[in-house]
Amino acid sequence: MLRSLCNKTGMGMIEVLIAILLTAVGLITILSLQSTSLQTVGKSDFLGRASGILYNELERNEALIMNPSHIVTEGTTGPTAVRVSGQEAAVAGDITFQVTTTIDSLEANTWRVTVTVTWPLNPTGITENIVVTRQERFRF
């Protein structure tokens, strides 16, 4: 039995070809997933940047509306171009997001702020809203 386990002939040509075939199939499978992963990374990058812009705009409008000294203008503003770099002029590799803000009055001293952020590869974009009320403690 020990003699059959310790065969001195080594690996044959068939075993080598099977090993090469299995390695090639594994490499091709991994390489085929590369384009899908790059697309997913790109989408998540755009979505992350858009959500940051969206929540920044929501918080800015919330702070303004909560201040009783600020006059609230109802209606839709935008689309306003916002660049990822924060620069006025486009920089190499910069993406421009379009931000649209809508402020609706719900009742006395209560407003709904809706912000939509779109970008070139996603014309639908993402939308979020918040209900804001006036608060005397925020007067400045």
Explain this structure:
The chain is elongated. With 140 residues, it is an alpha+beta fold. Helix content is 41%, strand content 31%. The protein has a single domain, classed as 2-Layer Sandwich (Pantoate--beta-alanine Ligase, Chain: A,domain 2), CATH 3.30.1300.30. It has a four-stranded antiparallel sheet, covered by helices on one side. A hairpin with a 2-residue loop joins strand 2 and strand 3. It contains two helices and four strands.
| CA-based gyration radius | 29 Å
For this structure, what is the CATH homologous superfamily? GSPII I/J protein-like
Secondary-structure element sequence?
A: HHEEEE
Number of helices: 2
Looking at the structure, the CATH topology is Pantoate--beta-alanine Ligase, Chain: A,domain 2
State the distance separating the first and last CA atoms.
92 Å
The proportion of residues in beta strands is 25-35%
Shape: elongated
Q: How much helicity do the residues have?
A: 40-55%
Q: Which structural category fits the helices and strands? A: alpha+beta
The total domain count is 1
Largest sheet: 4 strands, antiparallel
Mean pLDDT: 83
At CATH's second level, what is the architecture? 2-Layer Sandwich
Low-confidence stretches: none
Please provide the count of β strands: 4
Summarize the structure.
The chain has 140 residues and is of the alpha+beta class.
